[in-house]
Amino acid sequence: MAEKITPRATDYSQWYIDIVINAKLADYAPVKGCMVIRPRGYALWERIQQGLDGLFKETGHVNAYFPLLIPESFIKKEAEHVEGFSPELAVVTHAGGEKLEEPLVVRPTSETIIWAMYKKWIQSYRDLPLLINQWCNVLRWEKRTRLFLRTAEFLWQEGHTAHATAAEAEEETLRMMGVYKTFAEQYMAVPVLHGVKTDSEKFAGAVRTYCIEAMMQDRKSLQAGTSHNLGQNFAKAFDVTYQTNDKKLDYVWATSWGASTRLIGALIMAHSDDKGLVLPPRLAPTQVVIVPIFKNETREAVLKFARGLRDALAPSLRVVLDEDDQATPGWKFSEYELQGIPIRVEVGPRDMEKGQVVAVRRDTGEKVFLPVAEAPQRLPSMLEAIQKSLFDRALKFRKENTFRTNDYAQFTKLLDEPGGFIEAGWCGDAACEARVKEETKATIRLIPLEPQDTEGAPCMVCGKKASVIAVFGRAY
Hints:
The protein is an alpha+beta fold. It is 36% helix and 27% strand.
């Protein structure tokens, strides 16, 4: 129930956990750092999967599956890759009651085993491009965890593609960043910035990493998707060559890209309130819940009316009818607010007499009286209005909490109060970037791809001429 939820203003971190637990999205597992995704949480993940998978297939990608266990020698083949992941690796040394000849790593990501297979599958330019995605779990031995946002084991998708030229790989990397941006904004109703990571923040083994960044209600940034141009690094590590059109041998060019169950955390923190979840209609497993209100003598008549409404809505909406007569309507109202169902429809004897229903929006609490015959046409438009309203509200919040400064003292004050995204000049020197991180715990979230006017702009840290305007912020 809603009273179990700590208000955001009191303790934002506890508010988040309270929603995850009380909305029954996930729970703590017996293994430290891991979580159990409960049916409601998994239903939301399925909606995310379906939306993303459709976008992947529209861009020509196909799904496959690769093993969970990776020979340790594979991980070591790409030096930068193993250095980046070695602190988080879980290693299997014994199996079947015997010590293994070679230890096996539980996948933290699948580049190495996938590229070992690509060596077998790619011989000629005719085999390219190879556009494969997999849905799976990965394991990274994280020490500080939080449900959905960072857990030792999590679910995700990881795309891995091979191309004939550097230009094609770069085009793919940018395309998939665009897919993530489209999904975040059109499905999740979360506005995002998109751009490139600095060298210190890029994926281990990548030439360039592109990302989307979203602002949460506590004004921290959350990285919601990444797309990596791997150049020829993994192809060289695994000796993946192909015969070009002019009969020469060359290494293929690679990309990888991924998004995970942390998207559920993003949904919670971008939209929800002190009553519980607020879900965007396009991702909500249940879009409409019908709550009949009756006494013993009106029960059957009201239920019959409500069932007719459910059947009329079912062809176009994800609708549930609550026929339980043990809980009170008031309890149900609070429970469905906690679950974040976008529209609650109330039906009682008086509504039957008037031939109407009462539709209540989860995002605003607004009540709308609808003629029952018009409900199948009007409720979908209400859902679209909610979807747009959530996006507009989040965008307004981000704009109001994005600041511009080249003064380091002002920068530190803005980080502490109110927080948010801070645009500032940066000279490109890693030492300046490292100083900001060490002194403020803020990082360069990205460098926007849009053309920038740096004329006269100094580096916020050292005062030299800025080469870019970077977006700084504290992040999850």
